[in-house]
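User: structure tokens for this one?
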Amino acid sequence: MNNKSNEIKKDAEKVYEIQVPRSSQEGDVATGFLKKPSRKVLAAFLSKVGADPLGAYELLLKNCWMHGDEEILNDDELLLGACSALEPLVSFRQGVLKKI
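Assistant:
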């Protein structure tokens, strides 16, 4: 983890780094740092994901964004690439319900 990553990690409990290829050249990536979504952001995401999946993931990305290459947020191709990687932000632990 580089110095910028360490600096950003101080600002949130969990920080995720996202890398989106800018081109087919190896190493040409846009990088961003995301924080864990709040309950309010998760609720907004879940209420929107059925009707407008892309809008829901864009909402998630923009609300969890901390720092990075802003082109991820502004370029449609990079935004789509970023949205395809956001599943870990909204994965849930599976609870178990037992009849007793």
